Structure formats: C-alpha cells, structure tokens
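Progress note, sequence design subtask.
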C-alpha cells in the first residue's frame, strides 16, 4: 500500500483531520478515497469547494487553503483497529503538526477524532471553546464523519460543514 501523505503547509485556512486512511486510500495514496465516503460531496455541497473534487485531486486543495492529515497514519478497515499506542503517538505527532503549520482551523472529521486528540469527553458539533484550545492560536472545529456508515442525514452533515464555510467568509 502507498503511504497517504499529509498535505500541509504554512498559512492554511483549514486542516482536515481524520482518524486514519482507509484501505482504499492506502491503495491509491489519496485522502477520503473510499467511494462510499461522502467527504468530497460534503465539501462541495457546503460551499467549501467551488466544484466537486475527486480524491485523486486532494493535493489541489492546498491552492484553496485546505490541508489534510490524520491522527494515525496506518491504514485500517476501521477506526476500531487503531491501537491505544497508536493514538498516544498520534496525539503527539498531530499536536506537533498543528504547532508547526498553524492553520486557522483544525477541522476534526468526526467527534471521535477530536475526543482522541483533545482527551475531552463533552463535545458538540462546530467550533469548540476557543478559550481553551489544545494548540494555542488554532481554532478547533468538530464535524461529523464523512463515512458512508454515518446515520445522520446528509443535509444535517452539510449544514454543520456550512458553518465552517460561513465562518471563513466572515
């Protein structure tokens, strides 16, 4: 399998953070590549992208000010296959990345990703308490997972991502 490389650079508006790459993403080397994953459709329908992108174009989103990383780099069939040790190391590495690249917003794609990173248990959708960010100067936004297994209606998911879009416009 190919490594699914981070797409990170200084000055990004948003860094999207997932649990870890799927097996399909590992096969093709691109973020959110599973055809059942709704990530690219969500970005388009929320207004975050001007058109529907394909996973193979994930690096192109740097031009829009968007980057990608994961709390754990190893590909698995599901987040339940990630070990405690991988999360411990992943938290440290992710904190280092956010401190180094300093995006305006760290968008956690799934409440579980955020709770693993922040070690907080009470989490709502959207922007988190800015008085207590995990990384000073980086706003934290929690969005629903884009997995096709999520039971939340797509319109509700898009509405939450639209909050992120609307905030960037302000």
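Output:
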């Amino acid at each position: 399998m190919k490594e699914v490389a981070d797409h990170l650079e200084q000055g990004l508006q948003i860094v999207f953070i997932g649990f870890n790459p799927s097996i399909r993403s590992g096969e093709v080397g691109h973020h959110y590549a599973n055809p059942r994953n709704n990530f690219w459709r969500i970005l388009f329908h929320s207004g975050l992208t001007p058109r529907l992108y394909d996973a193979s174009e994930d690096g192109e989103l740097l031009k829009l000010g968007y980057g990608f990383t994961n709390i754990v780099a190893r590909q698995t069939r599901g987040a339940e296959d990630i070990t405690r040790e991988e999360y411990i190391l992943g938290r440290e590495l992710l904190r280092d990345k956010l401190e180094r690249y300093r995006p305006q917003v760290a968008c956690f794609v799934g409440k579980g990703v955020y709770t693993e990173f922040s070690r907080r248990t009470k989490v709502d959708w959207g922007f988190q308490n800015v008085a207590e960010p995990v990384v000073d100067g980086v706003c934290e936004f929690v969005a629903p997972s884009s997995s096709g297994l999520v039971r939340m209606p797509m319109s509700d998911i898009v509405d939450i991502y639209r909050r992120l879009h609307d905030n960037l416009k302000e």
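Helices lie at 23-28, 39-46, 84-101, 111-118, 154-169. Work on this subtask will continue into the next period as scheduled.
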